[in-house]
Amino acid sequence: MKVAALQMVSGVERAPNLATARRLLEQARDAGAELAVLPEYFGAMGRQDTDKLPLAESFGDGPTQAFLAEAARTLGLWIVGGTLPLQGSDAQHVHNSSLAFAPSGECVARYDKIHLFHFDNGRERYEEARVVEPGRECVTIDVASRDGERWRVGLSVCYDLRFPELYRAHAQAGADLLLVPSAFTHTTGQAHWELLLRARAIENLAYVLAPAQGGVHENGRHTWGHSMLVDPWGQVLAVRAEGGGLVVGDLSHDRLRQVRQQLPAREHRVL
What we know:
Oligomer: single chain
Family: Belongs to the carbon-nitrogen hydrolase superfamily. NIT1/NIT2 family.
Number of helices: 5
Protein name: Carbon-nitrogen hydrolase family protein
Helix content: 25-40%
InterPro entries: C-N_Hydrolase, C-N_Hydrolase_sf, Nit1/2_C-N_Hydrolase, UPF0012_CS
Keywords: Hydrolase
GO molecular function, one term: hydrolase activity, acting on carbon-nitrogen (but not peptide) bonds, in linear amides
């Protein structure tokens, strides 16, 4: 199955970001992708954390969800909408949610980001929990490719990448592909992004597809980018450093079987 990670440099206004996302989704379709994944906060990167609040949609209704459903249906793609803000338990909080849409346009899964980013090095400070409410559930979906093969896909978001327990749960559930839509900062991404992605692939013997925000944003934030596809041996199959565009590559069940047979580490787990 051919997959695509869409890299963006989202601005503060939703409409132009959705227009950019649509162009990239069309390019992914034209490249032969069956599954296309958008980055975290693809619809808007606000000037401040509270800018997420007025953009929050109720689950099942809203302009960003309508956009994703229409794109999936019209383009005939499986689409995972990186993340968008969905209403939380009160007016001061949202969920940072990843929604999966089938080619029919139906939303088939929702994953609310569990681990909330906190970073303070004296120059940059981020505290996602100020406006984001954490999720609690591990979510996988089954994607049927056009050739009839089934791919089990584990959902995650950005800062989740630092918590291997989530990905081990996906592996135990039979995941073949791990998705990591992200908006890693330039500082943390330069230090840890590729290392962590390759580690999650290797330890779980699964493909990893990681679409990212990548560049200097309208709000002044600098994201690391380097969207990539990693195979279950930890080999980087494709990467895009900065700027909007696609990372496209093929998944192979034969490759998964080969790696899992020659090093059956998932079967050797004790703790």
